[in-house]
Write the structure tokens for this entry.
Amino acid sequence: LRFDEKVRVVVFKSEVKGVFCAGADLKERAKMDDAEVGHFVKKLRNLMDEIASLPVPTIAAIDGYALGGGLELALACDLRVAASSAKMGLIETTRGLLPGAGGTQRLPRCVGIGLAKELIFTGRQIDGQQAFSMGLVNHTVPQNNQGDAAYQRALALAKEILPQAPFAVKMGKLAINRGIEVDIASGMAIEGMCYAQNIPTRDRQEGMAAFREKRPPQFTGK
């Protein structure tokens, strides 16, 4: 996906009705020794980092349970859409663990330190509406009979992104992701570097021409 220029947006969904991702298999984990657990969690963290660093926008469609590593997967995505009946939580402390695949870092960046601490310390599960009210998800929708309401809303969101200039969207994502980690002056410099890369693109010229000619732009990603 990273190197396929035809890919504009990636949507993560589950084929299992009622479950987005239930996290690690604790029965499997119980059979591992300490070294194996550490290796497993490191690989999982690396996977989440790979998802987070995909150059195109990513959307998690949470139509059911997203617990532990499942919520960490959703947090690694740029945008999240949840069914109102979905259940989410970093429940690791209820099992004698702590989030180890990015949850302690991505949740506070998403909802703020105070709420993140409360959710992680208590291991509380929240529904889609609660998640929306605290900014954990971008949209919440009532579940439908097919059990894929969040996926359908995620597709609609993806279709809003698709017509936009692909390279500009990629540079926007890069500028946000890099800029949020530094002071604002450094962030402005990052934005400037990303903007400079966008200036010579054909899509920028097409956007200007389409505006002058009062027609929809036809972006190619070049």
Remarks:
- Strands lie at 10-12, 19-21, 58-62, 65-67, 79-83, 87-89, 126-127, 139-141.
- The chain has a mean pLDDT of 94.
- The domain at 10-161 is CATH 3.90.226.10 (2-enoyl-CoA Hydratase; Chain A, domain 1).
- The radius of gyration is 19 Å.
